[in-house]
Amino acid sequence: MINIEKFVLGPLQTNAYLLTDEAGERGVVIDPGIGPKKLLERIKGLKIEAILLTHAHLDHMGGVDEVRKAAGCPVYIHDLEADWLTDPAKNGSLRWSDLTPPLVTDPAEYALDEGQKLELIGHVFTVMHTPGHSPGSVSFLLGNDLFSGDVLFRASIGRTDLPGGRERDLYDSITGKLFKLPRETVVYSGHGPKTTIGFEMDNNPYVGIR
């Protein structure tokens, strides 16, 4: 059974996730945000097989280089945001200089795409391209667990007013893809508490299906 740990990082209280295998020896990191000190301490002694990015906004990729250098692992991101890692204007760190200095990382080692299967820590992660909050936003499905980044939150949805955001795309991603998952699917969001697909279908005031 996979173990899921949440680390709330940085000034925007971004959720980073550490997933470890049954033996507690191998791990995957999702969205290492700004100031990943707690996360870095936790992964000491673990073999981190990958850093998976739901998207490349500053609060989700701010700790990429620190974690990558500490763990010696590759980074995965959707091609539509590959150059955001190397461009502080695109990842937002130039705009929000009060939160962090301009962020420039090495390029990602691997690209993500819709329907891709990633075999990591003895399990299969399915990549779902879920644009709207940003053009390259993806969600990762692992069994009954979904890591949605800033696409879907408990009783809320991601903002679409940032560069590359599009309200129609976000709505389509949620209703056309995420809401097709089983109702019991647990959603681990980029900010705030976890939720379920069923709860959001019934209660989300922005996209709820009644």
From TrEMBL:
<keyword id="KW-0479">Metal-binding</keyword>
<dbReference type="Pfam" id="PF00753">
    <property type="entry name" value="Lactamase_B"/>
</dbReference>
<comment type="function">
    <text>Counteracts the endogenous Pycsar antiviral defense system. Phosphodiesterase that enables metal-dependent hydrolysis of host cyclic nucleotide Pycsar defense signals such as cCMP and cUMP.</text>
</comment>
<dbReference type="GO" id="GO:0046872">
    <property type="term" value="F:metal ion binding"/>
</dbReference>
<feature type="domain" description="Metallo-beta-lactamase">
    <location>
        <begin position="13"/>
        <end position="191"/>
    </location>
</feature>
<protein>
    <submittedName>
        <fullName>Metal-binding protein</fullName>
    </submittedName>
</protein>
<dbReference type="GO" id="GO:0016787">
    <property type="term" value="F:hydrolase activity"/>
</dbReference>
<keyword id="KW-0862">Zinc</keyword>
<dbReference type="InterPro" id="IPR051453">
    <property type="entry name" value="MBL_Glyoxalase_II"/>
</dbReference>
<dbReference type="InterPro" id="IPR036866">
    <property type="entry name" value="RibonucZ/Hydroxyglut_hydro"/>
</dbReference>
<dbReference type="InterPro" id="IPR001279">
    <property type="entry name" value="Metallo-B-lactamas"/>
</dbReference>
<keyword id="KW-0378">Hydrolase</keyword>
